[in-house]
Amino acid sequence: MEIGFLGLGIMGKGMSMNLLKHGFKVTVWNRTLSKCDELVEHGASVCETPAEVIKKCKYTIAMLSDPSAALSVVFDKDGVLEQICEGKGYIDMSTVDAETSLKISQAITGKGGRFVEGPVSGSKKPAEDGQLIILAAGDKSLFDESVPAFDVLGKKSFYLGQVGNGAKMKLVVNMVMGSMMNAFSEGLVLADKSGLSADTLLDVLDLGAMTNPMFKGKGPAMNKSSYPPAFPLKHQQKDMRLALALGDENAVSMPVAAAANEAFKKARSMGLGDLDFSAVIEAVKFSKE
Question: Residues 6 or more apart from 77 whose CB is under 8 A from it?
Fold first, then answer.
C-alpha cells in the first residue's frame, strides 16, 4: 500500500516514519523540503509539491499545523485540488474547525475524490509509538480502506459519521486537556508557594482518583521548568480558541475553558508558544509574582 504524506512537523514525522517501518511505501512533502531528508534515509520518496504527491498516490494523508495551513495545501497553486480526482482519497489528520474540514471535503468530493477527516488525540511520543487515537469522519469506504494505515498509526480508530464530527470531537478533547493543564499548573504553583513539595503533590495525585498519564508524564519536567515540545503551546491555544467558537455556535457556557485560553494567550505573549503546552505554568508563576 502506497501512501502520500503532507506535513512533517512534530506529529507528521513520527507518523510517516511508523508507516515506513511497517512496510508501507511512503511519498512525502513538506514546505521546508530539507525536513524530508531523514525520511528519505528510511526509504521514503519525495515530491516537490502537494499536487505531485496526489498524482502519484492513491491515498494521501495530511498532518498540518492549523486551518490556514490545511486550506493552503489544498487550494493554493500546486495544491491537492490540482490532481485530486476519482479513485483518489484524501485523509486530513490536522486539527481544524468543522467549517474548515467541510470546505476541504466539498472541494475534494467536487473533483471526484473521497475525503476523510481524521484528527488525532495524542502528541509526539504517541505519534512515534503508533499509539494515537484517531477521530475519523467522512467517506466510510475510504475509512475502511485506511484501517491498515490507521492500525499502524494508532491504538484505536473511531468512525464518527459525517464530516465535521471528527473535528468537533478533537476540539472537545483538547479543550478538556487544556483546562486540565491549567488547573494542574495552578496546583503545582500553589503547592510550591505554600511551602509544600510539588514533587510530593505529584505522588499524592498519582495515588488518587485524579491519576492520569498527562500529570504523570508532564509533572516532573514542569517542576524542573523544562518544556520540550511534544505539543506546542501555540497549537493548544489555537485549539482552545476553536473550541470556544464551537461553544458559541451551540450556546454552551464555558467559563473554565475561557479562563484557560487566557492563560495560554498570556504564555504566548511571554514568548513560550513554541515550547510544550505545559509551559503555561510559567504564566501562572508570573501572575503570582
Answer: none
CA atoms within 13 A on the CB side of 48: 1
Q: Annotated catalytic, 170?
A: yes
Amino acid at 84: I
What's the mean pLDDT in 122-129? 93
Strand-pairing partners, residue 171, are: none
Element (H, E) at 95: none
Residue 130 · residue 43 · CB < 8 Å: no
Task: Give the CA angle between residues 278, 226, 197 to the nearest 5°.
Answer: 85
Pairing of strands 2-6, 59-62: parallel
Choose, from 13, 124, 168, 170, the residue flagged as catalytic: 170
pLDDT of residue 287: 72
Q: Judge whether residue 115 has pLDDT over 60.
A: yes
Q: Which of 95, 125, 72, 69 is nearest to 239 (CA)?
A: 95
Identify each DSSP E strand in the chain by its residue range: 2-6, 25-29, 45-46, 59-62, 89-92, 114-117, 120-121, 132-138, 154-159
Q: Which of 245, 232, 119 is nearest to 178 (CA)?
A: 232
pLDDT of 288 strictly over 60: no
Of 233, 252, 126, the closest CA to residue 181 belongs to 233
**pLDDT, averaged across the chain:** 96
Cα–Cα distance measured from residue 60 to residue 4, given in angstroms and rounded to the nearest whole number: 4
CA pair distance 275, 226, nearest whole angstrom:
9
Place of cell 523540503: 33
Cα four-point dihedral sign 179, 181, 187, 192? negative
DSSP secondary structure string, 3-20?
A: EEEE--SHHHHHHHHHHH
- Residue 107 CA to chain centroid, in angstroms? 22
